[in-house]
Design a protein that fits this description.
It is a single chain. The chain is mainly alpha-helical and 98 residues long. It has one domain. It has three helices and two strands, in the order βαβαα. The chain has a two-stranded parallel ribbon. Strand 1 (12-14), helix 1 (24-40) and strand 2 (45-47) form a beta-alpha-beta unit. Helix 1 packs parallel to helix 3 (85-96). The radius of gyration is 16 Å and the shape is elongated. It starts with 11 loop residues before the first strand and ends with a helix. Keywords: Hydrolase. InterPro entries: C-N_Hydrolase, C-N_Hydrolase_sf, Nitrilases_CHs. It is an enzyme of class 3 (hydrolase).
Length: 98
């Protein structure tokens, strides 16, 4: 168990993990699992990369520029709707898991 922090202290976990490409439900589940893991280690806040959901593949720029018709629909299908189910689930986990 993690040492009890001093009053006024915030313990932060920074995520450096492989994401879930083109799979919004899997990405949300992994995010929730990481939050639960961090809370179990005494962390109050979890910082995730800005393009974690949907996972923005670093290799996207290595593909031919003219194949956007193939790849972009897959990426758009993985976007989260503001205040949609997935965002509400992430909010719930962030607020309740301590």
């Amino acid at each position: 168990m993690a040492a009890k922090p001093k009053p006024g202290t915030v313990r932060v976990a920074v995520v450096q993990a492989e994401g879930c490409y083109f799979g919004l439900p899997a990405a949300v589940q992994k995010t929730c699992d990481l939050r639960v893991e961090a809370a179990g280690k005494g962390c109050d806040l979890v910082a995730i990369p800005e393009v974690w959901i949907p996972q923005y593949p670093g290799w996207i720029w290595q593909r031919p520029i003219n194949d956007s018709a193939e790849i972009h629909p897959s990426m758009l299908g993985c976007r989260s709707i503001v205040y949609g189910f997935h965002v509400r689930l992430l909010e719930f986990v962030a607020e309740t898991i301590h």
